[in-house]
Amino acid sequence: MYSPAIIAEAIVNGLMTGTVYALIALGLTLVYGVLHIINFAHGALLTAAMFAVWVVYETVGLDPYLAILPLTPLFFGMGYAVQRFVIGPASHGNDSNILLVTLGLSIAIENALLAGFRSDTRTLNTDYGFQVVEFGSLLLSKPRLIGFGAAILVTVLLWLLLSRTDTGKAIRAVAKEKFGASLVGIDVAHVYAVTFGLGCACLAVAACLLMPTFYVNPRIGQAFVLVAFTIVVLGGMGSIPGALLGGLFIGVVESLCGLFLGDSLGQIGIFLIFILVLLVRPTGMFGAKA
User: Fold this and answer.
1) CB under 8 Å to 148, separation ≥6 — which residues?
2) At what angle do helices 240-261 and 220-235 cross, to 10 degrees?
3) For residues 210 and 166, what is the distance between their CA atoms, to the nearest angstrom?
4) pLDDT tens per residue across span 250-281
5) What number is the average pLDDT over the span 228-244?
6) What residues form the membrane-spanning segments (predicted)?
7) How big is the CA angle at 278 (ends 277 and 279), to the nearest 5 degrees?
8) Which of these, 189, 192, 216, lies nearest to 203 by C-alpha position?
9) How far apart are CA 201 and CA 155, in angstroms?
């Protein structure tokens, strides 16, 4: 039997990991909330962002946390361009076509990464990767603590953007009724592209926060997007508060399952919760349409 201190440490570390999971889920739920589609390229884009962090670290020695500054606008611009000039025109306004296009993008990105980086696993050797911070009787991972603070900050900034700016009002208007929004002069195609860009920007930040403690290979994004999708379903499709709270909850569940069942079974609790939510409350915690 584990001591209360060890269990408390696992819970706190799970909360810190959960905020980064929530950041990945935010990009997924934001795209769903506005475009009303599941972005099948989400995992592949996260993988590309993680490789971008690895490349800038290995080539120019840029710290992963400092890499947030150039990579976030870069991935926003990339996401904007992909939605505006690839997904939008190729879908011809049909949601089912968008699903197929994002699935094709996922396959193309993954295979491009396999061609460029092979299937080898890569990590970053940072000085602080295994450092811990003492918090009373608890020992907390320093990278996870930094990730916790940064993910909370990004979530707050995203909420302020959506609730307090003209761009945010346009995004919310299109999410509610795109035809009505177009009638009052909102450029729906531009809003779609901005939303997709914001989702990719969230992935860039998440990649920078993950890389000091995680590895990357061309298929790693699939594992993260499965967790993110569980968070989105748990919190409610399209709900930003739900994504944050769902991420915190899933992080704790994964940490406790890893403690009691072993690291190899750490995610079993996540998928049991996923099944239970679909059976008991498919609309999620915040009642959004699933």
Assistant:
1) 15, 16, 19, 20
2) 120
3) 32
4) 888 888 888 887 766 667 888 888 888 878 87
5) 83
6) 12-34, 40-57, 64-86, 98-117, 145-162, 189-211, 223-253, 259-280
7) 90
8) 216
9) 12
The one-letter code for the residue type at 63 is D
Cα–Cα distance for residue pair 282/258, rounded to 1 Å: 26
Q: Report domain extents, the chain.
A: 20-218
HSE on the CB side for 255, CA within 13 Å? 23
What residue type is 66 in one-letter code? L
Residue 248's nearest CA partner among 82, 12, 37 is 12
Place of tokens 């009787």: 137
Q: Is the pTM of this model over 0.70?
A: yes
Q: Which of 45, 65, 69, 79 is nearest to 195 (CA)?
A: 79
Other Cβ atoms closer than 10 A to 96: 9
Given a contact cutoff of 8 angstroms between Cβ atoms, the answer to whether 86 and 112 are in contact is: no
Residue with tokens 């953007």: 161
Whole-number Å distance between alpha carbons of 225 and 223: 6
